[in-house]
């Protein structure tokens, strides 16, 4: 990168917030995906105005800019494919406003997802999207990828909670999109097009998120199966029975054993599949829904169904799912993760198809 451009970057961000050394470029050449492309410079923003000045410079000099949170993405969204400048947003991590009366929180996009819940929990609220990288992924990254998580079945994904955002456009203009009002129907839904855009349309620097009341009660259970097909059919049948669990996670034998080798979470190594299921809401409702779930599980020939007796048991069950990716990566460092989406009624057919293909090609 030309020295004149680096000098301008230093003028905008300060010397301590501009990196150009080769070893630093290596550190920012990849995320949780497998591709690696070294940028020409890395800058750390601390204000929206700095981001605006950067984009004006980059637009004028025709330099690509790739925004980056914590680099936890699995789809390569923060890899600088055209080199240029990586814009690190993790120093923009302040809570700007917490408004419990309206169930809203406004934050800078470099804040980690996990940092939000302790703040809002004091008002008996929570932020539902909980991706597997919840402990270190940033809100900006979640929005850029439209992240979901374990609670997605009932509570939806990131796009369902974005109310308003401040965005720096490619030419450096700063705009505010959306509204804090629940009913915001006039004109185009402009903020929605930035959710899932992976930084292609602009750089989000602030966002207002809607929150939900913490459910009164949670029921958590583990269903164990000797048949993959029965486990998959159970998922479809639970939904057909009129129950929408807050969480329903499917794990096969390979995943179970990888987790147990990585961290002992008490999962049965001989099971062909397990389902982690949680219902929540008013206590009577959550218990009634779990009773329906139990009926469906047993009708599909589960070998065991156990409801967690306390919070420690529940947390231990779900700890396994939280470490699943790391556990699988420890078995095969070149692990490639793909999210496959099918209609719920087609899940049994999909599981059978994947199992057959894996067997045919001797792939785990």
Automatic annotation (TrEMBL):
Q: Does the keyword Flavoprotein apply?
A: yes
Show the Pfam families listed in the entry: FAD-oxidase_C, FAD_binding_4
Name a GO CC annotation attached to this entry.
peroxisome
In terms of one coarse class, where is the protein primarily found? other
Q: Answer whether the UniProt record assigns the keyword Flavoprotein to this protein.
A: yes
Q: Which UniProt keywords apply?
A: FAD, Flavoprotein, Peroxisome
Q: Which InterPro entries match?
A: FAD-bd_oxidored_4_C, FAD-bd_PCMH, FAD-bd_PCMH-like_sf, FAD-bd_PCMH_sub1, FAD-bd_PCMH_sub2, FAD-linked_Oxase-like_C, FAD-linked_OxidoTrans_Type4, Oxid_FAD_bind_N
Location within or outside the cell: Peroxisome
Query: What PROSITE patterns is this protein classified in?
Result: FAD_PCMH (PS51387)
Output the Gene Ontology terms for molecular function.
catalytic activity; FAD binding
Protein family membership:
Belongs to the FAD-binding oxidoreductase/transferase type 4 family.
Q: What is the protein name for this chain? A: Uncharacterized protein
């Amino acid at each position: 990168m030309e020295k004149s451009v680096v000098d301008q970057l230093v003028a905008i961000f300060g010397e301590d917030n501009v990196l150009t050394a080769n070893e630093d470029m290596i550190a920012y050449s990849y995320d949780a995906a497998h591709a690696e492309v070294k940028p020409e410079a890395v800058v750390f923003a601390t204000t929206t105005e700095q981001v605006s000045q950067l984009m004006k410079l980059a637009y004028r000099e025709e330099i690509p800019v790739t925004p980056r949170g914590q680099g936890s993405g699995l789809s390569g969204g923060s890899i600088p494919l055209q080199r240029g400048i990586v814009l690190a947003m993790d120093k923009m991590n302040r809570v700007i406003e917490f408004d419990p009366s309206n169930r809203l929180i406004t934050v800078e996009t470099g804040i980690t997802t996990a940092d939000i819940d302790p703040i809002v929990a004091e008002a008996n609220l929570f932020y539902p999207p909980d991706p597997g990288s919840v402990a270190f992924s940033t809100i900006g990254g979640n929005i850029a990828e439209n992240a979901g998580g374990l609670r997605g079945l009932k509570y939806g994904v990131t796009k369902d909670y974005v109310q308003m955002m401040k965005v720096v456009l490619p030419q450096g203009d700063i705009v505010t999109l959306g509204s804090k009002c629940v009913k915001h129907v006039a004109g185009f839904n402009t903020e929605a097009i930035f959710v899932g855009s992976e930084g292609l349309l602009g750089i989000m620097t602030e966002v207002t998120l809607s929150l939900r009341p913490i459910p009164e009660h949670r029921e958590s259970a583990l269903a164990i199966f000797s048949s993959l097909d029965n486990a998959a059919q159970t998922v479809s049948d639970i939904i057909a029975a009129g129950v929408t669990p807050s969480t329903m996670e499917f794990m096969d034998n390979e995943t179970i054993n990888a987790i147990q080798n990585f961290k002992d979470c008490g999962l049965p190594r001989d099971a062909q599949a397990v389902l982690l299921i949680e219902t929540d809401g008013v206590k009577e409702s959550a218990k009634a829904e779990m009773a329906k779930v139990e009926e469906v599980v047993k009708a599909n020939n589960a070998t065991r169904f156990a409801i967690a007796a306390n919070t420690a048991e529940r947390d231990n069950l779900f700890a396994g799912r939280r470490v699943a990716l790391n556990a699988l990566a420890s078995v095969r460092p070149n692990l490639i993760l793909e999210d496959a989406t099918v209609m719920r009624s087609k899940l049994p057919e999909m599981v059978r198809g994947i199992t057959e293909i894996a067997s045919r090609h001797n792939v785990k």
